[in-house]
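hey can u run this one w/ flavin-adenine dinucleotide bound, need the structure tokens asap thx
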Amino acid sequence: MKPPAFEYLAPASLDEAVAALAGQDAKILAGGQSLVPMLNFRLLAPPLLVDITRIPGLDYIEDWDGGLRIGALTRHYTLETSPLVKARFPVLHAAMAHVAHLAIRNRGTIGGSLCHGDPAAELPGLALLLDAHLKTTKRTIPVAEFYQGALATALGEDEILTEIMLPALPTGTGWGFEEFARRAGDFALTAVGVTVGAEARIVVIGAHETPMRLPAAEALFTDRADIAAVAEAARDEVTPNSDLHASADYRRHLVEVLTRRALTAAWERAA
Ligand SMILES: Cc1cc2nc3c(=O)[nH]c(=O)nc-3n(C[C@H](O)[C@H](O)[C@H](O)COP(=O)(O)OP(=O)(O)OC[C@H]3O[C@@H](n4cnc5c(N)ncnc54)[C@H](O)[C@@H]3O)c2cc1C
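ok here u go:
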């Protein structure tokens, strides 16, 4: 399938890109791994694409006081293979292996995945789990305020995500990431990421229009002995829809099983 006709601009700086987007019915193009299929399926027909991949200085992974600052144009494959990511955020490293296929990970960018906001995508869920702050050309947005619905974010039309800031995890934090998909590389039917330390954080992917934290289940967790009860509470806290791929009941069941597995792994890692 072919996309509808569009004008194409490849600005050399963020200022030029913002100027090109202003007042236009335009779309930003990064890795193209979500946008181009949507154009080809004629789900979108923007008259202008603004390709940001030639803007220098947006592809990096740097120390940030024990955490990381990641440029929006950093490719999935770079995240997956970064020793810094593996050392500081092993849960993110583990999740990256579930993102699509190698060819897609070679082109897709962290910024593109976060801004696309697919409810079943790993990176928005990991950003929520890790309490990311998202820096744009206008402001810094806590990730908890970023997602507004399926494929809907707080970004304005002419606002570009430039950096993802991940604060350091406390020493000794345990983590777990469990995903169920029909085939390797498919979007998750459901996935669960957790961290345990002074507090437990549980994030579910693929069971809601946006990635979702489960505060009621989190509040029940203090010890390994709580894991089964927390997993049941997690199941009861989600209200997924039935769709072509899975019924709501099946997704709830997955939330319970995956939460139990992820918390068990996290507890052992923390210990
Ligand atoms: C067959 C297939 C399987 C896939 N499987 C998975 C999977 O299992 N898990 C998963 O998470 N993803 C999956 N993906 C999606 C993939 O990860 C994409 O790379 C990613 O979602 C989008 O990143 P991109 O850089 O390609 O963005 P693009 O496709 O270029 O852009 C996506 C959207 O984000 C906007 N955008 C991009 N960058 C910015 C920015 N810096 N600021 C503001 N807006 C921006 C664009 O305007 C567009 O609306 C799959 C894709 C395909 C084709």
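The longest strand covers residues 174-180. anyway lmk if its weird
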